[in-house]
Automatic annotation (TrEMBL):
Protein name: ABC transporter
Coiled-coil stretches noted in the UniProt entry, renumbered to this chain: none
Organism for this UniProt entry: Chroococcidiopsis cubana SAG 39.79
Major localisation: membrane
Keyword Cell membrane set for record: yes
ABC3 transporter permease C-terminal domain boundaries: 271-382
Any Pfam family hit: FtsX
Bilayer-spanning residue ranges: 21-41, 262-286, 319-344, 356-374
Keywords: Cell membrane, Membrane, Transmembrane, Transmembrane helix, Transport
Cellular component per GO, a single term: plasma membrane
Membrane topology according to the record: Multi-pass membrane protein
Matching NCBIfam families: devC
PANTHER family tied to this protein: ABC TRANSPORTER, MEMBRANE PROTEIN, HEMIN TRANSPORT SYSTEM PERMEASE PROTEIN HRTB-RELATED
InterPro entries named in the record: ABC-4/HrtB_transporter, ABC3_permease_C, DevC
Length: 386
């Protein structure tokens, strides 16, 4: 516990120049805030890209073998999905159509592309209470559910539905009545979502073949091992389809966007810049402290204190700066997350693992600065004191 005795000395050194201390705290807070924002947006983009797949109400999912992302839709024959019913453990199946349509803003009359999901109202689709509660109402032709978390460019649909119960809009130049709302959110693939029945979907996209689907949902009997069934289906079905869990399906989408390279590189670069900024600021503070008090450090060395001891004092100062700088950076980032989530309508929030990770980075960042500043401390010569 000897290191505890060094804390008063380290704190005393920092408090000698309160203005410099405040500047250091502000600098570290800014660096932490920059890292928080970069990682927050990075995670938010990937979470938004995979949230739809994660909400699928199925034990197993079937997709086209060539499927890469919802942004590059690939269909397959529904016959493949029905073939799974011949296997032990499979209870039922249902299908989902996915397509793009032109949604006309009822106020501005401007068209905007929206992602259309065609579901069977009588079968499982999404594990979203609002969708499950309103699914039966979709049995009426030309009715739809609108994603309340869609971009505002689609119009004040959610507000109108909440006030009036429904609103008539134009989708693919056809009149559709929006009778309910749900929440999934915008993503890489689309700025908005609308859910209709499979019958309405095929009416809206007349060029689509009814036997060509984008997603097959497979429900298993209670107690059935999904990995066993997945292995059987993978081994026996033709290789034009893939069978996986909803979580694995989400990973396929995430991998597609990660493999594009640009997104991860941009946000990764922001993190690196934040770390460099933090190291430079803390180094400047500690270096200036050492330079201004070099005679005092030389006196300590003359009294028998080793460089190792003095380095530990600098590290203590670094840790204190890390803690003092991290707290406001963390709190400001919480507020910025709320502002960003409201502005971009995408899921962005603080995660415990991210908070711990950045705290560790802050400690490492400040410790590195202390170690670099030690080079100046080594030049403290006891002979200069006498």
């Amino acid at each position: 516990m000897k290191w505890l005795k060094k804390i008063p000395l380290a704190w005393h050194q920092l408090m000698k120049e309160k203005t410099r201390l405040l500047v250091a705290i502000a600098g570290i807070s800014f660096a932490d805030m920059l890292i928080f924002i970069q990682l927050g947006f990075n995670d938010s983009l990937y979470d938004s890209a995979t949230q739809t797949q994660s909400l699928l109400q199925a034990d197993l999912v079937m997709i086209n073998r060539q499927f890469e992302s919802l942004s590059t839709l690939q269909s397959f024959s529904r016959e493949r999905l029905y073939q799974t019913l011949a296997y032990n453990g499979v209870s039922s199946v249902s299908s989902i159509y996915i397509g793009r349509g032109e949604w006309k803003n009822p106020t501005t009359r401007i068209d905007r592309t929206i992602l259309i999901w065609g579901i069977d109202p009588n079968a499982p689709s999404f594990a979203v209470p609002e969708i499950q509660q309103n699914a039966k109402r979709l049995q009426l032709l030309n009715t739809a559910l609108f994603d309340r978390a869609s971009r505002p460019e689609y119009g004040a649909i959610a507000e109108t539905v909440e006030k009036q119960g429904s609103v008539e809009i134009q989708l693919n130049q056809q009149n559709i009545r929006t009778i309910g709302l749900f929440r999934i959110g915008a993503s890489f693939a689309a700025d908005g979502n609308v859910i209709v029945s499979n019958s309405t979907f095929l009416k809206l996209l007349a060029d689509r073949k009814s036997n060509q689907i984008e997603i097959g949902l497979i429900q298993l009997k209670p107690g059935t091992n999904s990995e066993t069934v997945k292995a059987q289906l993978t081994a026996n079905l033709p290789n034009d389809v893939r069978v996986m869990t909803p979580q694995e399906f989400a990973e396929v989408e995430k991998y597609y966007w990660e493999s594009q390279g640009a997104i991860g590189f941009i946000f990764g670069l922001g993190v690196v810049v934040g770390i460099i900024v933090g190291i430079v600021i803390v180094y400047q503070i500690l270096y200036t402290d050492v330079a201004n008090h070099l005679p005092e450090y030389a006196t300590l060395k003359a009294m028998g204190y080793s460089d190792r001891y003095l380095l530990s004092v600098l590290i203590q100062e670094s840790i204190i700066l890390a803690i003092l700088g991290y707290i406001p950076g963390f709190l400001i980032s919480l507020g910025l997350y709320q502002v960003a989530a409201a502005a971009i309508l995408m899921p962005i929030g603080m995660k415990v693992e991210r908070a711990i990770f950045i705290l560790a980075i802050t400690f490492i960042m400040c410790s590195i600065s202390g170690a670099i500043a030690m080079q100046k401390l080594r030049s403290a010569d006891p002979a200069d004191v006498f």
